[in-house]
């Protein structure tokens, strides 16, 4: 889901936030395995907030 949002908002605009374009493509690919820190950077660059909630 994060990959789709990032691609719609133009990956190159995220590259300026300390995330290089090649690394971003690799991390968001089907075989990518991004670190949690990178996920947080991407979310921040997209002006998104991650929340943890109790499972029901």
Average pLDDT figure: 78
Percentage of residues assigned to helices = 40-55%
Radius of gyration, taken over Cα atoms and rounded to an integer in Å: 12 Å
Query: Span between N and C termini?
Result: 22 Å
Largest sheet: none
Unreliable residue runs: none
CA-based shape: globular
- For the secondary structure, the number of strands is 0
SSE order, as H and E?
A: HHHH
Q: How much of the polypeptide forms β-strand, as a percent range?
A: under 5%
Give the number of helices. Answer: 4
Structural class computed from helices and strand pairing: mainly alpha
Task: Describe this entry's structure for a reader.
With 56 residues, the protein is mainly α. 50% of the residues lie in helices and 0% in strands. The chain is built from four helices and no strands. The two termini are 22 Å apart.
């Amino acid at each position: 889901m994060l990959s789709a949002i990032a691609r719609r908002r133009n990956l190159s605009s995220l590259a300026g936030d300390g995330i290089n374009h090649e690394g971003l493509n690799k991390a968001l690919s089907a075989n990518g395995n991004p670190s949690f820190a990178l996920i947080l950077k991407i979310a921040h660059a997209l002006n998104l907030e991650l929340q943890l909630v109790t499972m029901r």
